[in-house]
Amino acid sequence: MHARISRPEFGNITKVTQTPPWWQSAVFYQIYPRSFADSDADGIGDLGGVRDKMGYLELLGVDALWLCPVMRSPQADGGYDVADPRDIDALFGGLAAMDALVAEAHERDIKVTMDLVPNHTSVEHPWFVAALNAAPGSPERARYYFRDGRGANGVEPPNNWPSIFGGPAWTRVTEADGTPGQWYLHIFAPEQPDLNWTNPEVGADFEKTLRFWLDRGIDGFRIDVAHGMAKPDGLPDMASVETKMLVHDDDDPRFNNPGVHEIHRKLRRVFDDYPHAVSIGEVWVDDNARFGEYVRPDELHLAFNFRLAETPFEAEAVRSAIDNSLDAVANVGAPPTWTLSNHDIEREVTRYGGGKVGVARARAMMMVELALPGAVFIYNGAELGLPNVDDLPESALRDPVWERSGHTERGRDGCRVPLPWEGKTPPFGFTTGEPWLPIPAEWADRTVEAQLETLHSTLSLYRLAIDLRARRHEFSGDHIEWYGSPTGALAFRRPGGLICVLNTADEPIHLPPGNLLLASAPLVDDRLPADAAAWLV
């Protein structure tokens, strides 16, 4: 017995005969440039390093790259504090390095998407510098959220909002005459002042940025904090003052305000002038109906759904996350998205228990996500089975969360440690200098070099799984059918004929009828072992 879950066609709700867009079922590979590969020996990864490894990316078989921010930035938050959105920072090689990378990627039939940050700028952005030098009420300050403080002489912030990184979301400035002045809003770090999207200059400048990169051959963008640009009228106090990074909280007035959708509709009109390009939103919204609004036909093409990345390795929880993710986009006819980790999230190997068990479960979950309809996002290093590095020396920590939390939260550096490429000792070919974060010596058996030479390595499994997904007709169809399965397991079927089975139980299970296409671990007496997944046709 099985239950059928029907899904409408992806794209427009009305069916039309056309070639599906490339991004509808693409495998995206997320590159955190600082940690991928260093080409100039300064210990920090750069675009030249990415270009040097393009052969590896082609070998891996991915369809597209997503580059985390490489625009000009003082790097207060890993590049998410942008000083010039239409230039590439010298740290990463400058604009010529980006042009060369895009050209080479396209020669290898790999698309290139990049991060854009519309919610805020750097304090070094010319607009904010001008705002600091201007008077209260000036046009320069109207591009941001400058407000008078509360209390006697304005000594209290304008409202009670906290920063995502800890502390208040407001910083007071010193006016030109040396007196304490207004406060400015920064939902993230003080070095990241929020833009005021009700000011038409903001949208016009962002459109200019979009066209600048699209005209240079960029194939699309991941839109940072895509649910955050619109703020509520009057900036009212929060009923409950607490904050955490990366959570679904639909009652948080800092995010998911209705005005954000008109912003995305304006951006979509730009994208419609570039039919090849894709817009991908970072959207932390809990309610499925509200999540789906972001991927209506006139807004974003795709939106990140993080359910799988938040789900424990338990069959029922995984099934619920899959159903939830499919339901979130079903009514608007958009493709679902799947990811297990990124630059902000603890790596899946660690989340699933670490060690051999964590690797086994991560391998299994990779096969689950690649078996699902929609777009898949792989974070660099996941294909190597890398864990988080949670014992970095305190002196090495770079994430602003560490300082803003008063050294009580270590932040996200543990999932951003540079990749190991070759050799037996750190820095494993990542750089010929001193890496910006130390690389564990015990990663010697997880280098690209070591795993390419091992048939059953995690890297080899990724390569084979991505290749099968691209070539086999059994992966076709835009919905899944659930099958009955033993307790602690799940199984679903794609319309093309692929069957995916996941075993989260403690004992091996019998597989449904079919020919084994791939398994994340060797079968035991023709049964699927614990912490494993299999594909059948």
From TrEMBL:
Residues 30-416 form the Glycosyl hydrolase family 13 catalytic domain. Keywords: Glycoprotein. GO terms for biological process: oligosaccharide catabolic process. The keyword Glycoprotein applies. Gene3D superfamilies: Glycosidases, Oligo-1,6-glucosidase, Domain 2. Pfam families: Alpha-amylase. GO terms for molecular function: alpha-amylase activity; isomerase activity. Belongs to the glycosyl hydrolase 13 family. This is Alpha-amylase family protein. It comes from Nocardia camponoti.
